[in-house]
Amino acid sequence: MVAHVHDTPGPWTIGVSVAVLVLAVAYLRAWAWRRSALANPIPAWRAASFFAGLASALVAVASPIGRGDERLLTFHMVQHLLLMTVAPPLIFLGEPVSTLWHHPVTRPRRPRAPVSLAVCWIPATATLIGWHIPAAFTVALRSPTWHAVEQASFLVAGLLFWWPVVQPWPSPREPRWSTVLYLFLATLPCDILSGFLVFSDRVAYSVYLSTSSGLTALDDQQCAGAVMWTCVTVVYLVAGMIVSTQLLVSPTLHERLAEIA
User: How far apart are CA 20 and CA 229, in angstroms?
Assistant: First the structure.
């Protein structure tokens, strides 16, 4: 039987909540200062996006969804999607580095760009596949420590993956058009995993056979796969369409077409 390790907030949940609060306050102060002191303030919609990203991460870790993944695979999948697919792009759209860069107190060094898109794609794919291997999944479900490691790796891998898409600071060396292919390739492992969960007639994670909920373990598994399939498809499709539109309206379109040729 699965131990209910997330019924009460643990050190990891409390730590994440405090970190989110500190980041929110620091960003708000820097955004307000830049808005009043500089000629090029960060738009309000970007600030709203940043706070929405932080809220998504907090919901994934500290809400009933975050504490209920030992009962439902669907909750686990929502948690995973919030940390890897929803929170990172929203946070990056808030231009946190640019906002804090111009604050009179906080002036971090400008980070270097990764070598290639593969540096961003491989860890995200490995994280997705690795934590959904039944043995690793069970360990994370039964251990608060490994559960925290799993959640942290989802968020870090998500931030790394969305870096070259949103480009909040220096991006990989590949031409921008390759980001569309990058997003398409990223859907493949997600489609394979979600398709398996939806169409399999066997329960992949036996730990859910002993939990009590309104769904059977197989129904829960199919629901989790459908949620993943739908969310990833919609988010990646929207991101790909935005990048494609940016390429089409770019004044350097002819140069980019020359790169393709």
Answer: 28
